[in-house]
């Protein structure tokens, strides 16, 4: 772990020699001549390791310890005491210091104390992340499936993202940008506001003079909401500039694009989303999740998914990423296991499905859902879908659907 290390001592020769010794050992350290100066510059939002002398004018090390711990209890503070000053050392430990060293001390002993403090800080921060992730996985909002390193980092980035800066999610088609936007919203807007999707095409035809006014109107209409601008890759450079430089007020802004624009000048935060090929270990969990969801939606018995089936799915390439895997999993929920290898091969033959293929898929699921709800009674299905009897029979034949499979038990 590379924590921020701070060293505070009012004696210049000690400060310089310790800083130099630590830098030789590869430890980056920021030093200060006194506690007051340190508090002006230390970012207490981000806990680090502080090594401080006890006896300093104006504010001593114990007072600094107390102030740091009040601002952020995760700071790991190592105090430097005089030789044999047991009373001060005990007082510092009771005040929350991680460790103490007696002067004079060796570089090795200081280095060891810093490394141990970093380990404890890393453990504390890991526990914080785990609690936050557990909270997100147990509440009723969206979930980002997967335990790959890439997904762990994405969840943490979304949890810690600032809400007063535009967030840009970028990656290939089907990598889950909408899911990530929903996850961001669930974390930061759980009790207030709405997630408001807006197409990038809404802005793309606006002139540089029109867009600022339209954007301000949107922000005024949606206080406390989260605006989700999808297909943002259609925006021009000037439009990106306006979008990222306009003050957001209480509104949050998430943009989804295929790539991160290189011309952005405003202050932003961005998260790159990996393809499924870059997170293959997550595919089995995603596949099972999508199959279960489809079974629940279509009210069918969940199929038994074997280890061999999971391995087959994991070894495939998915050009359209999560979107394509979800579609395949939905077909799996509605068909028998025998379809698996043939349909996987079919999916891989086309790098992207045609419009006709997408319509066929929609048509199949529409028919299946209607047959399921009406117990295979074709007259009721025909009335609901408003098609002729001949058209309905032709569609059933085309998709190899048998009404007897859906008869009420």
Automatic annotation (TrEMBL):
The entry lists its GO molecular-function terms as:
ATP binding; sequence-specific DNA binding
Q: Per the UniProt entry, what are the Gene Ontology biological process annotations, in alphabetical order?
A: phosphorelay signal transduction system; regulation of DNA-templated transcription
Instruction: Specify whether Hydrolase is a keyword of the entry.
Output: no
SMART domains linked to this entry = REC (SM00448)
Q: What residue stretches are annotated with the Response regulatory domain? A: 4-118
The identity of this protein, by name, is: Sigma-54-dependent Fis family transcriptional regulator
Organism in which the protein naturally occurs: Vibrio vulnificus
Top-level taxon in the UniProt lineage: Bacteria
